[in-house]
Design goal:
132 residues; Immunoglobulin-like; four-stranded antiparallel β-sheet; three-stranded antiparallel β-sheet; 1 helix; 9 strands; globular; MYP0 protein; Ig_V-set; membrane; Ig-like_fold
């Protein structure tokens, strides 16, 4: 009988700790992209990435695009924007075919990929951070 009482006490303590911790003091940023984008081989496509934050856009904002090829388990970074400068990763098949067209002050992190190839089929992910 004492074990049952001990278990109830543990559960009550855990519930008490969770209510004391409360919600996290961080604020979220909402990122919007198209679910699917289609292009034809040899053409170009714009990968749109817009975002919304209730906070002002800081000078430390960063935007990173990742690519995961269809059938692959790994993703690679293909583009990064930080400290007011765009950086196209110098490895991989996108390095000479990518163009930064976004403007973080307009809440836009879009890129264009030129000269599409069959190997470009996969998942592209836009990640935006607006510290603090």
């Amino acid at each position: 009988m004492s074990q049952g009482a001990g278990d109830s006490g543990s559960l009550l303590l855990l519930a008490g700790l969770l209510s004391v911790l409360g919600p996290s003091p961080t604020l979220s940023i909402h990122v919007y992209t198209h679910r699917e984008v289609y292009g034809t081989v040899g053409s170009h496509v714009t990968l749109s990435c817009s975002f919304w934050s209730s906070e002002w856009i800081s000078e430390d904002i960063s935007i990173t695009w990742h690519f995961q090829a269809e059938g692959s388990r790994d993703s690679i970074s293909i583009f990064h924007y930080a400290k007011g400068q765009p950086y196209i990763d110098d490895v991989g098949s996108f390095k000479e075919r990518m163009e930064w067209v976004g403007n973080p002050h307009r809440k836009d992190g879009s890129i264009v990929i030129h000269n599409l190839d069959y190997t470009d089929n996969g998942t592209f992910t836009c990640d935006v951070k607006n510290p603090p």
